[in-house]
Structures are given as C-alpha cells and as structure tokens.
C-alpha cells in the first residue's frame, strides 16, 4: 500500500489449498480488507472454506456439453 503504486484490481490464481487453517483465515481477512477499501479482488480457487466466505462469486461448472457459469450473490 506504500511505494507510490496504485493497485486497484488483483486476481489471484490458487495457492490457498496449501495453507493451514490459520494462514487461510489470515489470507481471507487480508483479501476482504483490500476489497473493503474499494479494490477489486478476484480469486480462482476450489477451496470450499474460501468459497463459503466470499459473498459474490462466479462459479464455473463443466459438463459433457461444455462449461457454464453461475453468478452467486449472497
């Protein structure tokens, strides 16, 4: 947050599955605090604990006929 660079959007692809419960909780809290300051934070993950804590998400589901997306806002 210092150094003169403004980062308004962040996309994170995985890495959460290797974290222990405490580290995962800290990472989620940090991402939520970034989002609360108006930044856009996107996360690509299969970790259920992360999905349970994110209130707006796009879920991609695959099937034999192709993939589909579903917007979920809780």
Largest sheet: 2 strands, parallel
For the terminal residues, how far apart are their CA atoms?
29 Å
Strand order in the largest sheet: 1-2
- Strand residue content: 35-45%
Q: Helix- and strand-based class?
A: alpha+beta
DSSP summary: helix tally: 2
Overall geometry comes to: globular
**Pattern of helices and strands:** EHEHEE
Identify low-pLDDT runs: none
The overall pLDDT, averaged over residues, is: 86
Radius of gyration: 14 Å
The percentage helix is 25-40%
- Number of E-type strands: 4
Would you mind describing this structure in some detail?
The protein is an alpha+beta fold and 74 residues long. The chain contains 2 helices and 4 strands. The strands form 2 sheets. A two-stranded parallel sheet has the order 1-2. It has a two-stranded antiparallel ribbon with strand order 3-4. A hairpin with a 2-residue loop joins strand 3 and strand 4. The longest helix is centred in the middle third of the chain and has 16 residues. The model has no long low-confidence stretch (mean pLDDT 86).
């Amino acid at each position: 947050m210092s150094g003169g660079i403004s980062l308004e959007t962040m996309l994170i692809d995985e890495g959460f599955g290797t974290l222990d419960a405490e580290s995962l909780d800290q990472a989620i809290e940090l991402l939520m605090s970034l989002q609360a300051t108006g930044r856009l934070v996107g996360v690509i993950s299969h970790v259920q604990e992360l999905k349970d804590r994110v209130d707006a998400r796009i879920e991609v589901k695959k099937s034999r006929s192709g993939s589909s997306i579903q917007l979920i806002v809780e």
